[in-house]
Amino acid sequence: MKTIFLRLALLFVGLFLALDSIYLMSMHLLNLGIIVPLFLGLLCVFTAWRFNRLVMLMRQRPNVLKWLKWSGVGLLLWIVSLCFFFSRIAHVPHSTDIKTNIHTLIVLGSGTPNCQVSPLLAARLEATAEAAQIWPESQIIVSGGQDTRLYCAEAQVMGDALRRNNIAAERIHQEERSTSTDENLRFSRQLMLDEGLSEPVAIVTSDFHTLRALRIAQKLGYQNVQVISAPTPLYLRYNAWLREYFASISSWLLNEI
């Protein structure tokens, strides 16, 4: 009975993870936050399918069992670190009450599948439009380079969306070279110097992304910087958090934060 329950649990979890990833990939989304759950889901399905065979193999080869035990310990430690990271992300507020008069808004890109605004990016642009009304004299930098296999730059798509939202074209500055958060903020800072834009700055990005974006900005030398967070749609939330987990590790290894 325990064996049947375990196999069914593995099968259910595996199918849920795999189908969720396939659904998001069908929306032209592809990142580690989608690939890792797909791999884990397929692994769970395979384990449920070949469960008895795997048990026999472990009994016949003690070294395999030992290796699996150490792998299990490593997986458990990884899950603990992931839960700790998720707990921090979960407590980031969906908006920031900024008392300072913001001079420049920097909007970070978030993918433009088929040269269209993605759900994450739509939330960021909506938050930008609200901020633009609060600070009508502020200038806006939209930051994002050309996506792989696409002819458009993220900043171009973002700028067009804001202009359609009745934000004056002269307020919008497009940074079209960046391919990462570090480059978003590095190249935007250079654009500020070139265009004579000033701080205080408010960075507009998704809620899960604000902590890393703020740390990178401070590392790059922004002196007076705040963040405005946009909510993440529920069906994308945990995949986005997982992607941010790996991105934070990458930023730490690259000494960006």
Automatic annotation (TrEMBL):
InterPro entries: Cell_Envelope_Assoc, DUF218, Rossmann-like_a/b/a_fold
Biological process, per Gene Ontology: Gram-negative-bacterium-type cell wall biogenesis; peptidoglycan metabolic process
Native source species: Hydromonas duriensis
Protein name as catalogued: Uncharacterized SAM-binding protein YcdF (DUF218 family)
TM region positions: 28-49, 70-90
Domain DUF218 stretches: 105-246
Keywords of this entry: Membrane, Transmembrane, Transmembrane helix
Entry-linked Pfam families: DUF218
One Gene Ontology CC term in the entry: plasma membrane
